[in-house]
Amino acid sequence: MAARFARFTGRTLRAEWHGIVVDPVRRLARRGLSGLVLAFVAAFGVIFFHEVAQRPAGAAAVRVLGGVQADLPLGLALLRTPVSLYVPALDLPVWAGITQLFLAFALAELTLGRGRTLFISYATTLAGTLTVRVMIAIGPGWWGLGLPSEAGRILDTGPSAAVVGLFTYLSVVRRAPVVFFLTGGSMVVESVVRPNLAGREHLIAVAAAIVLALLHGRGPSRLAGRAAVLDRRRRAPAPALAPAGPYPHPHHRPQRPRRHPALPGANARDSS
What we know:
The protein is mainly α. Helices cover 68% and strands 0% of the residues. It is built from 11 helices and no strands. The protein is globular.
């Protein structure tokens, strides 16, 4: 049993190493720095907004552009949500999270592509933002799910939900249990040890990423399968059609003409 468990652990870790590290590095070697565009944009965006927010006028501008709170109108919150990804959270160290931010976007961009990376990062962040509104609407209670109305005035910014969502999505799609427990498990521990609004949003981001990862590839694969079937049908030779005639039914066959006996004297007339 110990030997089997050791072999299973070794195969799992080796597959996870190739899926999370080796494959993205090979793609980076082929594509060069162009495969890290989103990672550089995300990292420099956070650094830029952090530096701008160090001045009073800049802090006010950053709050107007990317400050999201649950008590804001929904349309205004949705308009500010993309910018809020680059606005650092007030209670989290900026420079410590830059490495995680860059690594998450780099691995996701090399593995998933830019479009899917942007979708996952925005979807997980938006899931947390909208769910907080539902929790505030529920109110305190409900087995700890609800939140008081004062939580609507807390500034809700930062790329941490997107980072957690990307790592979780990658770990499920690439079947990397170690990365999954390091990301999802750490969020559970954080929410238990330090229960706050950010911890809840991280758990929501993990749940949303798991759902999206389980749905990964199902829609395109079905469409591709249907397209392949239609293509095979189109290329298949058409069946031979029966010639059109007055006897469409197979049992209705034309009868042979009857031979009439020769009349006497016919040959004599013909020969004459």
